[in-house]
Write a structure and sequence with these properties.
Length: 229
């Protein structure tokens, strides 16, 4: 992405428009970008919630519902919310869904047993407000599971990752979907705070036992936390 990354309300508007545009082929591109590994990472993210069956879980920035459907497959009652109407519309088997800005969730406080969010932290305009809302809608003792892109440690593995993510993904995206969107998505990692800062921000809004770890050598990262009582 040659132009500066959007900020503030311009970012919110851009993200909504971008995801509305790429919704029809979003899941296909996710599979290609991760070589199908994203399905395994989502399974793990849900399993690591360690919630009882039939727990009610909110999937924030659900997109077309890959993580939402995984919640249902593992026996939970899943609710999807996303900024993009077209993403929710394109989602399969999403009976409970609501279009909303994650920084202003339209749900009562302490009504969910769990909250998930997959690969969207970098797309939020006000990350602290989103974390506060996640904490607000979770009951005390409720669980949070976040997935986000990462980067392997320095070495050949990182070089290969950068070649794939920064060069190959935009090229494939230009062939199958919206070229500008798939230039933005790799560039948007610049929005992401470091792991220690993410942990500190979650602690600050009421989460405890915040655990951060890399997945598959750094191809992805996962954060688990508990809503303090």
């Amino acid at each position: 992405m040659t132009s500066p990354l959007p900020q503030g309300e311009a970012k919110t508007a851009y993200v909504r428009q971008m995801f509305d545009a790429i919704a029809p082929r979003y899941e296909l591109m996710n599979t290609l970008m991760t070589l199908g590994l994203d399905a395994r990472w989502r399974q793990r993210a849900v399993r690591d919630l360690r919630l009882a069956p039939n727990s009610v879980v909110l999937d924030v920035a659900a997109g077309t519902g890959s993580l939402t459907r995984e919640l249902s497959r593992q026996g939970h009652v899943a609710v999807a919310t996303d900024l993009s109407f077209n993403m929710l519309l394109a989602g399969r088997s999403l009976p409970e869904r609501a279009q909303a800005d994650a920084s202003r969730l339209p749900f009562r406080s302490a009504v969910f047993d769990g909250v998930t969010c997959g690969y969207a932290l970098r797309n939020f305009t006000d990350l602290d407000a989103v974390f506060s809302e996640m904490a607000r809608v979770l009951r005390p003792g409720g669980r949070l599971s976040l997935l986000e892109v990462a980067e392997p440690p320095p070495g050949i593995w990182r070089a290969g990752f950068r070649l794939w993510f920064q060069r190959a993904v935009p090229f494939v995206g230009s062939l199958l979907s919206d070229p500008a969107a798939y230039r933005y998505l790799p560039a948007s990692t610049a929005y992401l705070p470091e792991a220690t800062e993410l942990v500190a921000r979650l602690n600050a809004v009421g989460f405890s036992a915040v655990n951060h770890h890399l997945v598959m050598g750094g191809l992805s990262q996962q954060i688990l936390a508990t809503r303090a009582s």
